[in-house]
Amino acid sequence: MEFILLQAAPANGQNPISFLLFMGMSIAVFYFLLIRPQQKKQKEHQKMIDDVKVHDKVVISGGIYGKVMTIKNDKGTIVVEIDETNKTKIEVQKTSIITVLSSKES
Known about the structure:
Elements: H1 2-8, H2 16-50, E1 57-60, E2 64-72, E3 77-83, E4 88-93, E5 97-102
Antiparallel strand pairs: 1-2, 1-5, 2-3, 3-4
């Protein structure tokens, strides 16, 4: 009986078709769980940055809240007013915007 079981096992230990199928499924799972959601999030963030307008309230990296005063598309920067009483303004990269809190329209 043991001789029959040993004879049924493949000689090289693994079926190449099942190995390729396993690798293909692993790559598909990796793509749909890790790569695709990250690309979607990046596209949404880029759309948000492109839709920023003057007088929008934003949060920039570093946790600074402010209001967009000027957009300089040629340099890829924005001027943000962070203190209304002293009119303190800083110029930062547009990509440093984390979120838009409110727009002029709303």
